[in-house]
Amino acid sequence: MKYLSLAFLVLTGLAFADARQVDDYQWEGVNRIVAIGDLHGDYDRYLAALQAAGLVNRKGKWSAGDTHFVQTGDVPDRGPDTGRIIEHLRRLGKEAQRKGGRVHSLIGNHEAMNVYGDLRYVHEGEYEAFVSRGSKTLRDRYFDLYMQSLEANAPERFAELPDNFREQWDMQHPLGWVEHRQSWDPAFNPDGEDAKWVLGNKVAVRINDTVFVHGGISGYYCQNSLASLTEKVVAALANFDPATPGILEDEFGPLWYRGLSGDEPRAAPETVDAILANHGAKHIVVGHTPTSGVIWPQYDGKVIMIDTGISAAYGGHVAYLEITTEGVFAGYPSGKFPLPSGGEDLVAYLEKVAGLNPDNPYLQQRLKLLREPPAPPPADTPPEADEPAAGEAPQPIPICGISP
Question: Can you give the pTM of this predicted structure?
């Protein structure tokens, strides 16, 4: 009877091959993949996205069996809940693996920025989350060490400090700042929990026929392996040199590149095809560039944008991407739709999504552009003022190269 039941499942298409890990960056035979984009410190909407996708139950515990869940980076900044999200992702990864699933947390530009100390977008609530009874004493001690170092190494600057310097310094270093750096900066503290979490994550992975990466892959990195992308980023973070940030701040690097998402300079279609061929994939899924509420295909569906602006800082647009043996779907709290690749199907799809969110003006604007695309400029239109003069054309992006 057991063998008959198994045969019945196979014949009816209800049984799938077990997922197989090819290497640290590639998996095959995965039954179901769910991906969500940038979270930016919003725990409630992060949890709402997980629940909409059926990844967790009401208690926030893994309930998706052997599903692979990909979070494409940018957990921190702009919201106060980064610590809660990271803690939950860690726990969820353990729960998923016990059920045959996986959680893949990718490195985004904001994870990198927090590690190497670019704190422009850190929400005040992030620091407050680290505050304890000993925070003031710890900050005073750090300030004293800072002043001693300044006096010893830059006596002229030390002598010129204004009378209210401590007040200014405290504004730039609120309570919890020292603990934040102890957790995020490996140079500050090699055992920092958040730094270890980031350095243990990947920049890009391939699951079945889909590559996932935060920003994108440009022609400069087209031939790089998924392993080399991670190795380059992790090495640069572990030994950060502000004079030569390299891949960490490269606008064409995997953490920052927006050319696959429609920003100029757009990736050439040949580059997209070369990337897919290099990794044996059919799709590239990216976050980083907000769509203001819609899972959006580019390049005839070869590129899929999933940074819908889940965080309240970007509108709170909860959505997820789902890939199964039945196809590719865009999921929203009110339902999910097959994701089209283009043409009239794209208009019909966006009409459905806009219907779910009638108060979202960005979707209406996008829909209008789809229905009434702007006319191309006349052939004799003069160049824009900021275009390079004749003979000063920028170096073209390679169709498909490899970074040094």
Answer: 0.91
